[in-house]
Amino acid sequence: MLALEKITALPEGGFDPSTPNQSFGRVGDYALSACGGYFLDVYGDTATGNLLPDMPRWAYDPKMNPVLIDLITSYLDGALTIERLQEASQEDPAARELLLDTKSFLRGQDSYLED
Question: How many CB atoms lie within 10 A of CB 55?
Fold first, then answer.
């Protein structure tokens, strides 16, 4: 998932078909900012990455829970606050405890499983 900006007006210098790798695009094209993290890793219906404003621009793989893409869309549409999006990206301590308890319970039980 990329954060792109649509070019709505011809930039200074504009598009030169003789040097497409050095020009600034055409009206209707999309541009990616020159610096910072403007992408998210997508896994199915979730995304992780530099999602929140308080994350440094260069944090390409911050420690966070995957967030549903529907929540990101709701935030972009203005239907969800940044605080709710941030809350969704944080690990739930109860879920973490349940995961660790389950792993502990399953340890050493492989002899009970069929091949």
Answer: 16
List beta partners, residue 30: 6
Q: Which residue's entry shows tokens 């992408």?
A: 39
Dump pLDDT digits (tens) for 69-98: 999 899 889 999 989 988 888 888 888 889
pLDDT band, residue 22 (cuts 50/70/90): low
Q: Give the residue carrying structure tokens 């199915």.
A: 44
The token pair at 94 is 């109860």
Strand, helix or coil at 71? helix
Displacement of CA 32 from its chain's centroid (Å): 15
Alpha carbon of 23 to those of 4, 14, 61, 104, 109: distances in Å?
Answer: 17, 6, 31, 58, 62
